[in-house]
Amino acid sequence: MAKKKAEEEEIVSDKGNEDKNKSSEQLTETKKKLPKQLTKSKEAKSKEKEIEPEAAAKVPEKKVSLKKSPKEVEELIVRLAQKGTTAANIGTILRDNYGIPKVKVLTGQKIGKILEKHNLKALSDLDNLIKKADELRKHLQKNKQDQVAKRGLLITEAKISKLSKYYKKKGTLPESWKR
Predict the structure, then answer these.
(1) What is the rounded CA–CA span in Å between residue 118 and residue 174?
(2) Measured on CA atoms in the order 41, 45, 46, 51, is the torsion positive or negative?
């Protein structure tokens, strides 16, 4: 009886090994198939991304016909700056209202350089920080327990002092400037 049980166990274990062998064979077959499928999809993707040189050459370049001369644009920039408009807003106004996409292409200078030439360059980053600090102070007068706003005010004032030191060293702010 012991021999029969041992023989039965061997037969059962052989069947288990056969199942394992079949499953391992199936896995190796699928592994062999996977890289081919992946490379096909990569190739297909790369073909989709490729642009024929002929097609790229056919795209027409946009030619901007401007009605204003460089001097007129410069005068317009100076007028807007005298009204208190920042350099970034001047660029937006010129693009949207006057159809001037890039000032540098037309005049050869950026808006900031044109403003420097006419002594109108405003320190917009410093001005924005000062406005933010003023708004935080007003808020803190109404909400004295707002700890987050207090910390924000401290950080903003630190930024103002760092930026003012930089501008004083650079010479754009006078040494006697204080907030």
Answers:
(1) 18
(2) positive
